[in-house]
Amino acid sequence: MIEGGWDFVYPAYAVTFGGLAVLAAVVVLRLRHWAKRAQGLKR
Amino acid sequence: MLSYLANPARFMAFSAWAAPLFLAAAVLAFGVALPWALAFSPADYQQGETVRIMYVHVPAAWWSMGIYAFMGVASFVGLVWRHALADVAARAAAPIGATFAALCLITGSLWGAPTWGTWWEWDGRLTSMLVLFIIYLGYLALWSAIEDEEKAARLAAILCLVGLINLPIIKFSVDWWSTLHQPASIMRSGGSAIHPSMLGPLLTMAAGFLFLFGALLMMNMRAAVFRRRVESARARGDGA
Questions:
Q1: In this predicted model, which residue has the larger pLDDT, B213 or B234?
Q2: Do B230 and A1 touch (CB under 8 A)?
Q3: Using a CB-CB distance cutoff of 8 angstroms, which residues of chain A are in contact with residue B43?
Q4: H or E element: which one contains B163?
């Protein structure tokens, strides 16, 4: 059996959930930016 | 349902409540899948703890291909019926698919190092997956490079449809060529070869990825619709 697997498991999960969190943050910020500007049109 | 949502006003009304709902479902699925994958699922008798990388690697691989197939359908609809929201959907999905493809490559490399003894191998599966990631980048670059949105949508849709040929190559690469990568163990004839104690966290994690894709897709599409409203108003000279 392969020993020391956690040394690879933790980085894999950190990269995955870090990457997904950054992606989600960028999408949310971009949506807020354009929603605010579109809202400004109505005023 | 899809023809109902093809109307931008109806899509905006639907996505205003559906996107947060999908996001909540993703958080819930990840909240269940993470401890299940890291603590409650068993280690593999050969791979040891490294098998836990499967729970993030496989969903990223599945959905990076699934998202590309979705983009192919949206591109086809956009090309044939010239539906603006179809082009918006294809473009909105691309950065999410590219991220999933990148995560698949990185986590695959982290899994390959202890199990295969190498971070990378130029075999059919790994190379075709890298090609998918490059197609995603090319698709996004094409959209950004052409100012005329209609022309950009047409050319990007053609690129996307041509790139669809890569999906069966990825899927069957492990059968066609000699590879370090294992053959299909879940989506195969004769049923899944994976034990339920590992299938449970894998499918739950895959559901989390899918819900997250749905939420981010709708948010990206909403941003695109808002942006078009702003740019149309600017073109009319309304300010903004």
A1: B213
A2: no
A3: 1, 5
A4: helix B149-163
What type of residue sits at position B179?
A: T
Which site among B27, B38, B226 would you substitute to test the A interface, given the most A Cβ atoms closer than 10 Å to its Cβ?
B226
pLDDT at A4: 79
For residue B38, give the DSSP letter: I
Return the DSSP state at B182. P
**Facing residues of B48 across strands?**
B44
The ipTM (two decimal places) reads: 0.93
The C-alpha atoms of residue B98 and residue A21 are separated, in whole angstroms, by 15
Contact B62, B206 (CB under 8 A): yes
Between CA B31 and CA B150 the distance in angstroms is: 41
- d(Cα B79, Cα B211) in Å, to the nearest integer? 27
Closest CA to B213 of B58, B84, B68, B48: B68
pLDDT interval class at B37 (50, 70, 90) = very high
Tell me the domain boundaries of chain B.
Answer: 22-41+51-183+195-226
pTM of the model: 0.93
A19 and chain B in contact, CB less than 8 A: yes
Q: Write out the H or E segment, with its range, that includes residue B168.
A: helix B166-176
| Least confident segment among B57-61, B80-84, B236-240 | B236-240
Backbone angles phi and psi of B47, in degrees to 5: -85, -10
- Give chain A positions within 8 Å (CB) of B48: 1-3, 5
